[in-house]
């Protein structure tokens, strides 16, 4: 039989207040302090006006957009470009490749034809600007008005996710266009002084002139170190190749 433990010896102090807390003598009733915070944490609180609520409800919770990339030369050689066809602005039709139809009966081939519906479908001829206007512009505007928005891309390898999100130097994607729209929207509203520093999660501290100079020196030292490291890496790569 194990000996009884000394409760006072093994009592742990609070790591929050750094003091020992009294032991509980019984269950604590918290019914009187419970509060329903669903309205405060919902997209539209109970105090919002009716027009704002109806506007959000009409948009729906999730929008799924499909962008079809152009076919590669290899895909065209294999005559697989007829697999995907646009029925309208929200639907596509998927069919088996032509080279597989010879091995399938007419009934089986008909059963493999499928129709998929999305919030909106963008064809291979869609430009980066048109895609941004049709998918991202409104969510960014909603974000500027105080609503949370989440956007992500999904697709198989080589589907064109990186091109859609980042684009190229000459034809940028939705991410650079989003950042451009955000910063243009807050022009003239930026705090130009450099004397504020984030503190913890939701707070900040105002720096003195000496602290500003110290922070500037630290930043410049980090930037110089980054350039030096990059230079060493480039030299090593050149000597390797």
TrEMBL record:
SMART domains in UniProt:
KISc
Positions that bind ATP: 155-162
Q: Does the keyword Disulfide bond apply?
A: no
Which GO biological process annotations does it have? microtubule-based movement; mitotic spindle assembly; spindle elongation
The protein's name is: Kinesin family member 20B
Family according to the record:
Belongs to the TRAFAC class myosin-kinesin ATPase superfamily. Kinesin family.
Its annotated compartments are: Cytoplasm, Cytoskeleton, Spindle
Query: Where in the numbering of this chain does the Kinesin motor domain appear?
Result: 61-241
Per UniProt, what is one GO molecular function of this protein? ATP binding
Gene Ontology cellular-component terms for this entry are: mitotic spindle; nucleus; spindle microtubule
Going by the UniProt record, its keywords in alphabetical order are: ATP-binding, Coiled coil, Cytoplasm, Cytoskeleton, Motor protein, Nucleotide-binding, Phosphoprotein
């Amino acid at each position: 039989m194990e000996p009884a433990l000394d409760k006072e010896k093994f009592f742990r102090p609070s790591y929050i207040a750094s003091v020992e807390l009294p032991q509980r003598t019984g269950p604590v009733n918290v019914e009187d302090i419970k509060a329903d915070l669903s309205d405060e944490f919902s997209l539209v609180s109970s105090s919002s006006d009716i027009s704002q609520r109806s506007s959000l409800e009409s948009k729906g919770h999730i929008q799924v957009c499909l962008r079809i990339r152009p076919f590669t030369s290899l895909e065209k050689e294999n005559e697989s470009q007829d697999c995907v066809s646009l029925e309208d602005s929200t639907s596509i039709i998927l069919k088996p490749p032509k080279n597989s139809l010879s091995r399938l009966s007419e009934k089986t081939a008909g059963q493999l034809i499928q129709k998929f519906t999305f919030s909106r479908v963008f064809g291979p001829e869609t430009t980066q600007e048109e895609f941004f206007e049709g998918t991202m512009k409104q969510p960014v505007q909603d974000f500027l008005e105080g609503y949370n928005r989440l956007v992500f891309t999904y697709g198989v390898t080589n589907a064109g996710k990186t091109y859609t999100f980042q684009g190229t130097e000459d034809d940028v994607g939705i991410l650079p266009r989003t950042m451009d729209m955000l910063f243009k929207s807050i022009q003239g509203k930026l705090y130009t002084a450099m004397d504020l520093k984030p503190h913890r999660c939701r707070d900040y501290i105002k720096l003195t002139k000496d602290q500003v100079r110290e922070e500037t020196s630290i930043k410049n030292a980090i930037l110089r170190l980054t350039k030096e490291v990059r230079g060493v890496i480039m030299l090593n790569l050149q000597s390797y190749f």
